[in-house]
Amino acid sequence: MKVKDRRGRGITYNPVMFKKAVVGVLFAASFVAGWAAEARICRDYVSRIPGAGVELCEAAALSDLKVRSVQGRTLWGTEVAAPNASVRVLVLGGIHGDEMSSVSLVYHWIALARQGVADMPQPVHWRFVPSLNPDGLFAHPSKRVNAHGVDLNRNFPTPNWSRDAKEYWEIRTRRDPRRWPGKTALSEPESRYVVDQIAQFKPHLIVSVHAPFGVLDFDGPTVPPTRLGRLYLDQVGIYPGSLGNYGGVHKGVPVVTIELPSAGQLPQQGEVRQMWLDLLRWTAERIQPQAAGAVAKAAKP
To answer: How far from 258 is each of 97, 195, 254, CA to CA, in Å?
Structure first.
């Protein structure tokens, strides 16, 4: 097809080639826009969490989980799966927004998982969510609760939640606003996402990272780890609406709760790595897909 340019000169117009060129330009523009958005998001997160750089965040290759916080922030996550993985592990950071080191630890563990996926003692399909409570993290200052003022780790639908969660909050915490369980169980989009993951992803293990008590907690079946790095097992009990209670006791999915020593400072790199290696060893020894599946089926609905 012959067309004229603005100077009146004849040129050949190929509609197929023109369409390909337009598509290529649009694709390039979309790629650049996506890269810029990811870089901006990583800069935002790195400004809030200790011991992590933009490069570490970008290397995590996070994707939109299609879940929004109360204030409309995106929940981001990523997966690292070994070939023929038979065990599924869900790793959550930042359930409490002011426990910034927990978010950073998950970023570092994503990097370690990507580096050594072929050398793991057991093939694992990891699903990482570094920051479950971005509204709390990005508040000024960061706060434990989400944008509705709900402690997400008291919002899970444990048995008799309506009675026990309210009673515990009123009597044991003396109405501490940092530990308000919400008006109803699963009132928050962030806690609903975790429950959906337990139902859909069907993890054999949940690892929930917190701070700043410097201990290792455990709920659910199987023998708990005695230590991860310098953190020793100290089972502190269960709380109405907690993830350990819901996942470990009610649903029969082992829940390892890591309490880092500081909310604002990440442990040294050697310690971060040692905790990861200890988790891998214990998972290979104690988390068996057949046994976990049998326990989950036997758990209450």
So the answer is: 15, 19, 13
Position 22 in a domain? no
By the 8 A CB rule, do 247 and 219 touch?
yes
The answer to whether residue 21 is domain-embedded is: no
Please say whether the beta carbons of 48 and 98 come within 8 A. Answer: no
Q: What is the pLDDT of residues 99-128, one digit of tens each?
A: 999 999 999 999 999 998 656 788 999 999
Q: Residue 249's domain is classified under what CATH number?
A: 3.40.630.10
Residue 7, domain member (yes or no): no
User: Tens of pLDDT along 50-76?
Assistant: 999 999 999 999 999 999 999 999 999
Tell me if residue 229 falls in helix, strand or coil: coil
pTM: 0.85
CA distance 54 to 219: 34
| 3-class SS string, 18-81 | HHHHHHHHHHHHHHHHHHHHHHHHHHHHHCCCCCCCHHHHHHCCCEEEEEECCCCCEEEEEEEE
Q: Which residue's structure tokens are 């390039």?
A: 28
Domain count, the chain: 1
Instruction: Give how far the C-alpha of residue 34 lies from the chain's centroid of Cα atoms, to the nearest Å.
Output: 21
Q: Examine the pLDDT at 18 and tell me if it is beyond 50.
A: no
- Indicate whether 40 belongs to any domain: no
Range of the domain at 85: 48-298
Query: Which of 38, 31, 36, 19 minimizes the C-alpha distance to 76?
Result: 38
